[in-house]
Amino acid sequence: MGVKAMLPSYELGFYALVVTCAVLYSGSGIFEASRDSMNRKAFRDGIKPGWHYFGRKMDVADFEWVMWFTSFRNIIIFALSGHVLFGKICSMTVPQHRAVMYMIYGVLAVLASMGLVYLMIILSHCLLLYSVALAKQKWLCYVAGLCCLASFKVEPFGSWQSGFVTGSFDLQDVLFYGGCTFTIMRCMSFALENSERDEGIYSIFDLLKYNFYLPFFFFGPVMTFDQFHAQVSTRELRRKDDEMKNIRVNALLHVGAIVAVDIFFHFFYILTLPSDLKFVNRLSDWSLAGLAYSNLVYDWVKAAVMFGVINTIARLDHLDPPQPPKCITMLYIFAETHFDRGINDWLCKYVYDHLGENHDNILKELVASITTFAITTLWLGPCELVYIWSLANCFGLNFELWVQKFFQLGPFAKLEAKLSGAMSRRIRAAFGAVNFWAIVLYNILALNSLEFALLVTKRLLVMGFPVSTLSIWFITYCGVQLIKERERILAIEEEQKGDKAKVE
Q: Is 136 left (phi over 0), alpha (psi -120 to 50) or beta?
């Protein structure tokens, strides 16, 4: 059935009321647990004094978030502000050479922050993969690129290379591995695009201009070389209507999100609580489900803010970067699940779509998904937890296709054809609710721990059955229906825009 199947407004209103009440009830349980555990000795490292006028301590368990917006806030603002100012001057004076100017500023910023040895390590990998790209053999580009990536993700090679970089500060490891691994992904994109070029080859300076664009260098997102090269080579720099207004609005939203997260962490210790399983086990099933879900929402907010700030700067440079990840609240399909749209686009273009083609064949889809998650495992860093995460999500992606194919068989297809659009939507939402919690439970592995994921699974599916299990499933069903309603409205708006464009 189509995505435009409509439900009665009173039914949607009931779903919205149920979801709102459930979120408030679950949130109140997490709030009480946070209040009661504020001075708990087991949480001493994760809960520190916060803003004094709140009179409460703050959850500081996320090292990266705290570093970005406290210790290194001024340095990051200074570096990115310098890039914006430098880029604006270049765009106004020498727009045809702005990519070279971005590269020079990026190289100097990397040199100043990480030192000459780190810069030499980056340049050596760029030179190696550029040499491989000259052969114009895709298989060789994949092998060389994945071997270079493994040299940073597999021990003892990673520690050996990082040992050359002297100095010590809190974000050094994050910057080292972030810059190096994103460099490898960009170099692989360059090599693969060069292999597909019919005439001639791209120069080493094209690669360096691509790799040393500072906003993308350390933390991404990855923008494929063909897109970056085409956009940065444009000499006529024009902005769309209301583009600057949208950029300012997005910038204010990101600042607001940062402040909102800091305020939230004074009242909800969602990152620290899962570290004490004995304490968490005393929470109600509703609070535990909310705690698991809120961890995924926070990770999405963190990614959306980080990539949103970077994307805002890129848009000031007249680029169209990958968008922030789709909100986890809107996800109930494994095929749409990702936390880094840049890496997701990279994997889809060079691996998943290349092997899976139209993703309609079960065997091709299996090969494509296994290969994609194998590379993702290497990207994240091979370890037991990542193996389990990859296996679970790979299974979820394929099982989703198997179920879809099963219900497309003759008897089921005929049965669905007899149903109304609204009833078909309700049945699909019921399956979507199950999928939603599979996505949550599978990804809690990567964000917290295997033990916490097992505890949540046991409480919700075994010990909480049937009351908690079915009630949470029904609430999730209500949420999926609201998501589907939003998708229906967006589909209608897109169709109206298309019809309007045809008329014009």
A: left
Number of H helices, E strands in the chain: 22, 2
Residue of 230, 202, 180, 223 whose CA lies nearest to 130:
202
* Each residue's pLDDT tens digit, 438-458: 999 999 988 888 999 999 999
List the single range of 136-140, 180-184, 202-206, 498-502 with lowest mean pLDDT: 498-502
For residue 462 the two structure tokens come to 């075994």
In whole angstroms, how large is the CA radius of gyration of the chain? 24
State pTM to two decimals: 0.90
| Residue pair 177/158 in contact by the 8 Å Cβ criterion | yes
Which helix (H) or strand (E) segment holds residue 345: the answer is helix 341-347
Token pair 């939003």 in the structure block, residue: 486
b or e along 226-256 (b: 16 or more beta carbons within 10 Å of the residue's beta carbon)? bbbbebbeeeeeeeeeeeeeebeebbeebee
Evaluated on CA atoms 408, 412, 417, 420, the torsion sign reads negative
DSSP string, 13-34: HHHHHHHHHHHHHHHHHHHHHH
Under 8 Å between Cβ of 209 and 103: yes
Beta carbons within 8 Å of 3's beta carbon, 6+ residues apart: 484, 487, 488, 491
> What residue type is 251 in one-letter code?
A
385 neighbors 364 (Cβ within 8 angstroms):
no
57-59 vs 47-49, strand pairing mode:
antiparallel
Q: Are 225 and 210 in contact (CB under 8 A)?
A: yes
Q: What is the pLDDT, as a whole number, of residue 223?
A: 93
Residue 78: how many other CB atoms lie within 10 Å? 12
